[in-house]
Design brief:
single chain, alpha+beta, Creatine Amidinohydrolase, four-stranded antiparallel β-sheet, 30% helix, binds magnesium ion
Length: 266
């Protein structure tokens, strides 16, 4: 149950997994447009990861059948790739993990296709901003509750949204899910203390309406109970004193988004 401390060599291996992962999601960002299917981007991501020496972390994990979790519009997380073409106005949350050299990386990004409603773009923007507020709290000596408080405070009190309670961020390393759990809600100075050189995945899942969710008939996709949209952004973060460091990067993704006329710029 203890939080695993990484050596600096292990952190550098995790950075490699996270770099391939970040670039794989940039490949997804290049391909997304109205008409693209989940099957297409799932294959593209898997091919990229394997070509770069990695293995998709999620494929086969608890029997999950794919490289990407793809959650569209009112789906929160854990959605399955399908043959259904994406359409103008959809928001597509893509979550992916890469395993390489014995270590995992984990990240997620929500893409908007074409004419996404302004209120949905605002949800995406606030969710992404809340991720960075959470990361700012993920420094050595602080507690998981400090991260959750920062995310919840911004999403629920400064904005009219709701953080999902049933799914949480987590430690990671040799396993994709390690201790501690990192809820996207909480109290300051509550929960396990973050040691220096822990590595954690911080991942706000934020709903426009009710925070309540249920699991669809496919036994995977988590969906908002009121059918309103949900957004999800995630980074893998190296816990350090004063200021932590992201091992994943949105830089490649956001370059690809900027160059893709079909995607919303948040
Ligand atoms: Mg993830
Ligand atoms: Mg995760």
């Amino acid at each position: 149950m203890a939080i695993k401390i990484k050596t600096l060599e292990e952190v550098e291996l995790m950075r490699k997994s996270c770099t391939v992962l970040s670039q794989a999601l940039a490949e997804v960002a290049k391909a997304l447009k109205p008409g693209t299917t989940g099957f297409e981007i799932d294959k593209l991501a898997e091919d990229f990861i394997r070509a770069n020496g990695g293995v998709p972390s999620f494929k086969g994990y608890n029997r999950f059948p794919a490289t990407l979790c793809i959650s569209v519009n009112n789906a929160v997380v854990h959605g399955l790739p399908t043959a259904r073409p994406y359409k103008d106005g959809d928001i597509i949350s893509v979550d992916c993990g890469v395993y390489m050299n014995g270590f995992h990386g984990d990240m997620a990004y929500t893409f908007g296709i074409g004419n996404v409603k302004p209120e949905t773009q605002k949800l995406m923007q606030v969710t992404k901003e809340s991720l960075y507020l959470g990361i700012a709290e993920a420094v050595a000596g602080k507690r998981t509750g400090d991260i959750g408080f920062a995310v919840q405070e911004y999403c629920e009190r400064k904005n009219p949204y709701k953080c999902v309670r049933e799914l949480v961020g987590h430690g990671l390393g040799r396993q994709i899910h390690e201790d501690p759990q990192i809820p996207n809600y909480g109290k300051r100075n509550d929960g396990p203390k973050l040691p220096e050189n822990a590595v954690v995945a911080i991942e706000p899942m934020v709903n426009m309406g009710t925070r309540n969710v249920y699991t669809a008939d496919d036994d995977w996709t988590v969906i908002t109970q009121d059918g309103k949209p949900s957004a999800h952004y995630e980074h893998t973060v190296w816990v350090k004193p004063v200021k932590s460091e992201m091992l994943t990067s949105f830089e490649w993704i956001e370059q690809a988004v900027a160059a893709n006329e079909h995607l919303v710029k948040i």
